[in-house]
Amino acid sequence: MSKIAIMGAMREEIAPLLACVENINEIEYANNVYYEAIYRGKDIVIAYSKIGKVFSTLTATILIEKFGCQTLLFSGVAGGISGELKIGDLIIADGLCQHDLDITAFGHPYGYVPEGEVCIPTDVGLRMIAQEVAKAKGITLKEGVIATGDQFVSCSEKKAWIEQTFKADALEMEGASVATVCSALNVPFFILRAISDTADGNADMDFDKFLESSAKISAGFILDMVEMI
Ligand code: SAH
Predict the structure, then answer these.
(1) Which of 72, 161, 202, 228 is buried most deeply by CB count within 10 Å?
(2) Does the Cβ of 199 fall within 6 Å of ligand 1?
């Protein structure tokens, strides 16, 4: 039977998932803990990577290569860029780019390295399932570009630069690295984020205030999707 990976970056992002699943089996591997579990009869493996592109690359790779997951869903929080996104709103990535990848000195665009791509698209089928779940819940689900980088953005100028350069609607620190792994290994993947802050001068305070509630919103939505996969 097909196995589904659900990953987050921080403990707070997977805690609401672990609270809802059954038959949890903890496996320690590579300085981390992986939770095999069952949700509504489906085999899933849950883990949080720790923050940033390097840790999330490691965890996504292990979920696929060691645990044999054939679909990967990411659940977490992000800083909102689009004015349409308020704290607590959900966004799904149609594509992900690395805003801090820069070899523009050689004439390349921001986010590009040779043999890579600036924006990695997510699986269309999973996005369609998400839109069905959203419809059933009576919520609007924004789709857009999510920009990833190894920095917590809490500055309006930086946020505006990322918006203009990548046409991004939200930003975070793991999506594009997970996308790179899944696309290289041909694993359908999906990135969902609930807004915890708006990446401006108040971002650190908003993040602390809304991390838990936004992480819960994202996790609840992901579990509804699992039923339909
Ligand atoms: N407060 C935490 C650090 C959080 S880093 C600590 O002290 O341990 C922010 C995390 O949430 C990352 O995993 C990132 O993916 C996401 N995120 C939310 N808002 C963000 C923002 N404004 N900029 C970058 N990442 C953000």
Answers:
(1) 72
(2) yes
Provide the residue ranges of all domains of the chain, joining segments of one domain with +: 3-228
Shortest-distance Cα residue to atom 5 of ligand 1: 152
pLDDT of residue 1: 61
Q: CATH number of the domain at 3-228, please?
A: 3.40.50.1580
Distance CA 42, CA 76 (A): 21
Nearest to 114 by CA among 130, 99, 103: 103
pLDDT of residue 209: 98
Q: Looking at residues 97-119, what average pLDDT do you find?
A: 98
> Ligand 1: distance of its center to the CA of 107 in Å?
31
Q: Active-site residue 208, yes or no? A: no
**Which residue is closest in CA terms to ligand 1's atom 25?**
172
pTM: 0.98
